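> example.struct
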């Protein structure tokens, strides 16, 4: 299952965001390093289910469908708060960084109200500039990556050069435990402008420039501008957006309130919506009602609490993924057991039919003959590029 990493300084609302997104019960407190061991949970992204196009009822196996909206699961990991110097072990740095090894993208939760200082300690809103927080995460991860490669880089680089080995392949193999692929390394070398044929000549700055690009292509970062309900946050959201990041204003406290109230049947609320309906006002206390009223105003101002939007922008914009539905019978849209539209896969834009067959199972990729579009019933060749919400049957040779 694809994994998103939730990162940031201590006390920015990161774990509240995690609890809201996953309905977990990770501990939250108003002091640094409440999170020591990583919290792991499952959230989801929404996609319009093809069942509405075909006018049939589906029974998903790896996801959920509610009112023709497919909720595709995504793993989320909330790691210990990061402070400057994490790559050399400050705070809980090394543990933090190791926990991010398999994250496909990172959501950097920033206190947009400036109510948390550089060390993750509470301070009066507006007294810390969140612009100072946005870039240090990238620096820490780049320095961590450089540390992983720099230990024996001269020997490693000389071997690659004089034995005429593929440098990108060697680096990818060495960093495979971080989910880094050979294509990521090739792109990072190109964009860093380093000499692929003479890695033994790379300076420390060359290596840092390379790993900075490698982080960018293999673990892209977006910002969740949290505590957007505080007045000091609004101008900072605009400033963060102008700095070139993908930014979503969020209020994780409000989202957690709504999801828990919905779970108890007090209100009707779908994550990501701009409104909710109170179902049992008599069961809600006065303080809870006031909190819901304030949350309603927040939804009108920002359009949502931002939590679900962050997850979906990370998947669909930052990672450029689409949702594809494999079936084994293109006429009934079923698998072998008769489940209708059973599975939803998140795949990268540009994935071909044959590449998708490999994603489902290596044997399907190796014995691929063609695919069939369940909507048009057309045969599709191995180079066909999948589209979002495609319903596809893979036809493979038998006997393997």
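> example.seq
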């Amino acid at each position: 299952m694809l994994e998103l990493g939730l990162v940031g300084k201590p006390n920015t609302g990161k774990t509240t965001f995690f609890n809201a997104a996953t309905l977990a019960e990770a501990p939250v407190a108003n002091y640094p390093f409440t999170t020591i061991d990583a919290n792991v949970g499952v959230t989801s992204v929404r996609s319009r289910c093809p069942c509405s196009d075909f006018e049939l009822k589906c029974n998903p196996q790896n996801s959920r469908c509610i009112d023709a909206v497919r909720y595709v699961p995504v793993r989320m990991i909330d790691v210990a708060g990061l402070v400057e110097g994490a790559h050399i072990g400050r705070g809980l740095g090394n543990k933090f960084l190791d926990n991010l090894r398999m994250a496909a993208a990172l959501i950097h939760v920033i206190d947009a109200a400036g109510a948390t200082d550089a060390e993750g300690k509470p301070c009066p809103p507006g007294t810390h500039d969140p612009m100072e927080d946005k870039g240090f995460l990238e620096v820490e991860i780049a320095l961590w990556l450089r540390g992983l490669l720099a230990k024996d880089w001269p020997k490693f680089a000389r071997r690659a050069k004089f034995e005429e080995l593929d440098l990108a392949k060697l680096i990818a193999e060495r960093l495979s435990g971080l989910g880094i692929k050979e294509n990521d390394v090739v792109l990072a070398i190109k964009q860093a402008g380093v000499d692929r044929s003479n890695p033994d000549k790379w300076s420390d700055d060359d290596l840092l420039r390379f790993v900075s690009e490698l982080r960018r292509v293999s673990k892209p970062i977006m910002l969740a501008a949290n505590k957007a309900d505080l007045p000091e946050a609004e101008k900072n959201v605009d400033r963060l957006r102008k700095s070139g990041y993908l930014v979503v204003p969020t209020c994780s406290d409000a989202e957690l309130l709504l999801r828990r109230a919905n779970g108890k049947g007090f209100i009707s609320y779908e994550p990501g919506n701009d409104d909710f309906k109170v179902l049992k006002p008599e069961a809600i206390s006065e303080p809870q009602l006031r909190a819901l009223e304030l949350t309603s105003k927040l939804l009108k101002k920002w359009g949502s609490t931002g939590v679900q939007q962050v997850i979906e922008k990370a998947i669909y914009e930052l990672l450029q993924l689409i949702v594809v539905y494999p079936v084994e019978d293109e006429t009934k849209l079923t698998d072998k057991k008769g489940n209708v539209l059973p599975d939803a896969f998140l795949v990268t834009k540009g994935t071909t039919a044959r590449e998708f067959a490999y994603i489902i199972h290596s044997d399907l990729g190796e014995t691929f003959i063609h695919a069939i579009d369940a909507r048009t019933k057309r045969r599709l060749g191995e180079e066909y590029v999948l589209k979002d919400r495609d319903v596809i049957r893979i036809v493979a040779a038998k006997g393997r």
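> remarks
The two ends are 27 Å apart (CA to CA).
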